[in-house]
């Protein structure tokens, strides 16, 4: 498993944002999930607003295109002091070299974008709603890390038989969000690194902010 050892001071914006803008690498699973999260948050009357940027044309899914999309949004619309801009991308060692991810992470540091990277894929975040992956034997964790033959999707289906990655049902995950956050934190053994070097996901950083806003609204 390749490691990115350089550490940094995590920049994740204000603790309690009023707007979270999300640019996703994936064109289906991630946008559908976050739109579902936005609907649930709105239904609770949260003052926090989520904006999920639309999928890019021509299947431009490489992390650099996700970054370009966010840069364009920031240039066109600007951001407020309480806004948080987030990139949701996968490590996916089969597609992206470490150098490419490192360059994205560096720019995110500079621009104060929250880099919510999943290693190897966003499906891990969904799985963590139902399973404490850190408790699995190392062999099973390794299989999920390499994600051959869609190992993560197959594991999710053990808990959500009707799961479709192109259209995840938010009701299969939303009520278990706090549990997913706890499970993700257990996997994040080096939170000072720019992204999870091993099996892990930083999507929990976004959901922590969403739940925090909900709790503050109630308070």
What's the SSE blueprint?
Layout: E1 19-24, H1 29-43, E2 49-52, H2 63-77, E3 83-90, H3 98-111, E4 114-119, H4 123-127, H5 138-146, H6 151-157, H7 177-187, E5 200-201, H8 204-218
Parallel strand pairs: 1-2, 1-3, 3-4
Antiparallel strand pairs: 4-5
Helix pairs in contact: 7-8
Provide structural commentary.
It is a single chain. The protein has 219 residues and is an alpha/beta fold. It has one domain (19-218). Helices cover 42% and strands 12% of the residues. The protein contains eight helices and five strands, in the order E-H-E-H-E-H-E-H-H-H-H-E-H. It has helices at residues 29-43, 63-77, 98-111, 123-127, 138-146, 151-157, 177-187, 204-218; strands at 19-24, 49-52, 83-90, 114-119, 200-201. A five-stranded mixed sheet has the order 2-1-3-4-5, with helices on both faces. Strand 3, helix 3 and strand 4 (114-119) form a beta-alpha-beta unit. The radius of gyration is 16 Å and the shape is globular. The N and C termini lie far apart (44 Å). Mean pLDDT is 88; it is low at 1-14.
């Amino acid at each position: 498993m390749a490691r990115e050892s350089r550490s940094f001071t995590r920049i994740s914006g204000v603790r309690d944002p009023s707007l979270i803008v999300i640019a996703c690498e994936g064109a289906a699973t991630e946008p559908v999930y976050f739109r579902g999260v936005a609907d649930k948050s709105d239904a609770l009357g949260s003052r926090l607003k989520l904006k999920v940027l639309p999928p890019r044309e021509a299947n431009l899914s490489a992390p650099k295109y996700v970054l370009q999309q966010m840069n364009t949004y920031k240039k066109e619309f600007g951001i407020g002091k309480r806004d948080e801009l987030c990139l949701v991308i996968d490590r996916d060692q089969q597609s992206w070299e470490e150098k490419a991810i490192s360059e994205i992470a560096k720019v995110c540091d500079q621009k104060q974008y929250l880099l919510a990277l999943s290693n190897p894929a966003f499906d891990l975040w969904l799985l963590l709603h139902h399973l404490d992956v850190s408790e699995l034997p190392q062999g099973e964790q390794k299989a999920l890390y390499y994600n051959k033959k869609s190992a993560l999707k197959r594991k999710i289906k053990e808990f959500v038989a009707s799961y479709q990655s192109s259209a995840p049902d938010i009701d299969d995950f939303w009520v278990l969000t706090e549990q997913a956050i706890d499970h993700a934190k257990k996997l994040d053994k080096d939170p000072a690194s720019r992204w999870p070097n091993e099996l892990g996901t930083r999507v929990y950083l976004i959901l922590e902010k969403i739940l925090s806003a909900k709790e503050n609204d109630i308070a």
